[in-house]
Amino acid sequence: MIFSTRLGKIEIEESEVLTFETGIPGFEAWHKYALVMLPETLPVQWLISVESMEIAFPVLDPWLVKKDYAFDISQDVIDRLDIKDRDKILVTNMVRIPQDNPQEMTINLLAPIIINTENRKAIQLVLDRSDYSLRHLIREGASEPASKKEGEVCSS
């Protein structure tokens, strides 16, 4: 499938489509997305709705910004995403890029997107933690080395 988006023409295979059963908070009407890498924006990737070409969220690996980022995934989420293998979990977080000042880019550490890469089910999980911010300034963590280690995301 080839889609014309605000990011240009993008080819997305059906096997690449992610399903957010309940949508994304604020965008509950749309359930099908694709995670797209554009060389010119890396390490930022794009979560693009395949149902509405106007919807595209910049996302980023949170460990590139905060090497000690950690949270628990509840059994309810594990069941909803049908996670059988923890190695098949991908975590990414939405990024806010101010048009007039991209240096003030922030990442939402409070609501990670959890993806089961095996069955392509996904959810945006709102964490019950006060030590993470909706708008964590990315340049604050820019000097931290990216080192995602086994076990940083735990199931409970």
Tell me about this structure.
With 156 residues, this protein is mainly β. The protein has a single domain (2-150), classed as BH3618-like (Roll). 4% of the residues lie in helices and 34% in strands. The strands form 3 sheets. The chain has a 7-stranded mixed β-barrel with strand order 3-4-5-6-8-10-11. A hairpin with a 4-residue loop joins β10 (113-116) and β11. Mean pLDDT is 88; it is low at 143-152.
CATH first level: Mainly Beta
Number of domains: 1
Whole-angstrom Rg:
15 Å
Mean of the pLDDT scores? 88
What fraction, in percent, of the residue positions are helical?
under 10%
Outline the biggest β-sheet. Answer: 7 strands, mixed, barrel
| Element string (H = helix, E = strand) | EEEEEEEHEEEEEE
Outline the low-pLDDT stretches.
Answer: 143-152
**Straight-line distance between termini:** 38 Å
**How many helical elements?**
1
In brief:
With 156 residues, the protein is mainly β.
